[in-house]
TrEMBL record:
SMART domains: Lactamase_B. One of its GO terms (molecular function) is hydrolase activity. Residues 42-218 form the Metallo-beta-lactamase domain. It comes from the Bacteria. The keyword Cell membrane does not apply. Residues 116-132 have a biased composition (Basic and acidic residues). It comes from Bradyrhizobium sacchari. This is Glyoxylase-like metal-dependent hydrolase (Beta-lactamase superfamily II). InterPro entries: LACTB2_WH (IPR041516), Metallo-B-lactamas (IPR001279), RibonucZ/Hydroxyglut_hydro (IPR036866), Sec-metab_biosynth-thioest (IPR050662), WH-like_DNA-bd_sf (IPR036388). Residues 104-132 are annotated as: Disordered. Keywords: Hydrolase. Gene3D superfamilies: Ribonuclease Z/Hydroxyacylglutathione hydrolase-like, Winged helix-like DNA-binding domain superfamily/Winged helix DNA-binding domain.
């Protein structure tokens, strides 16, 4: 496959919920039974190291998944818990794992939006957000946390959420990329929670790094990660071009653009697609390429500037 083809998504992920699988030496994964159009087969939690271990992304509020994770590390000591971001399919189970293990929780911080909500936006608390989460230890880009036989470096990857972190293991050339990069589908970027400007910058940041095997929050591992990221960058630029192509024909609202751009989309994903278009439009308005009356919001109408 040449680098010019569209994103080579891989939806082959036979892992069954609750089963612990060693995917590489020092890396195990356990799938939560929370499949959906947004989570694919479910959230993947990772166990890093052996003996004294770290758990990355304990998953949703799910007692059975917490029990499966704890069973997977029976006879071992959990010394660290890492959380990539505060969506409800990733962070709520942290409380159960912490209570059972006493391990401190490392993350960028509590949930926050990528930008203030505009006055004209109807305030609806995002259903997918975990507002109860707070880490014990806040970490930022470049911070390194070491355990027994492993060393993880925080890589700031805002975009999907403002507080999204990836955790790189440079010596092994591994990167636990959360929901920023997924092998089965593109990530959802929904303002004001997410930001396309941040998301694209974060893709550039990952593409420039040395890690080449990505472990994602959903779906299979991604070999040749930086090359895959370059596919994603081109895919997003193509989506931007599609939006501009539609606006070149005249003013349009977001539902009109979604119908023109996302042919054959799963109807359950139409709303998410609209927010993804909004994320692109925010970026285009900020760059002066596209214009709208008032703030760039989901209900707005857009035209070429």
């Amino acid at each position: 496959m040449s680098d010019n083809d569209d994103v080579p998504f891989n939806r082959n992920f036979p892992l069954k919920p609750g089963v612990v699988e060693e995917v590489r030496p020092g890396v195990r994964r356990v799938l939560c039974n929370n499949p959906s159009p947004f989570t694919f087969t479910g959230t993947v939690s990772y166990i890093v190291g052996t003996g004294n271990v770290a758990i990355i992304d304990p998953g949703p509020d799910d007692a059975a998944h917490a029990a499966a994770l704890l069973e997977a590390v029976r006879g071992e000591t959990v010394t660290h818990i890492f959380v990539t971001h505060t969506h409800r399919d990733h962070s709520p189970n942290t409380a159960r794992i912490k209570q059972a293990t006493g391990a401190p929780v490392y993350a960028e911080g509590p949930h926050r939006a990528s930008r203030p909500r505009f006055e004209s936006e109807k305030h609806n608390p995002e259903s997918g957000v975990d507002r109860d989460f707070a880490p014990d230890i806040r970490i930022a880009h470049g911070d390194v946390v070491e355990g027994a036989g492993w060393r993880l470096e925080a890589v700031a990857t805002p975009g999907h959420t403002a507080n999204h972190l990836a955790f790189a293991w440079p010596e092994r050339k591994f990167n636990f990329v959360g929901d920023h990069v997924m092998g089965w589908s593109t990530s959802i970027v929904a303002p004001p929670d997410g930001s396309m400007i941040d998301y694209m910058d974060s893709l550039d940041r990952l593409a420039a790094r040395e890690e080449d095997l990505y472990f994602s929050g959903h779906g299979p591992e991604i070999p040749d990660g930086p090359r895959f990221v370059r596919f994603l960058i081109r895919h997003r630029k193509a989506r931007e071009a599609s939006i501009l192509h539609r606006l070149a024909k005249g003013e349009a609202d977001i539902p009109t653009m979604v119908r023109a751009i996302y042919i054959g989309i799963d109807p359950r994903l139409t709303t998410a697609a609209g927010y993804s278009v909004l994320a692109h439009l925010e970026d285009l308005v900020a760059r002066g390429v596209v214009a709208t009356d008032g703030d760039p919001v989901i209900t707005g109408t857009y035209r070429m500037a």
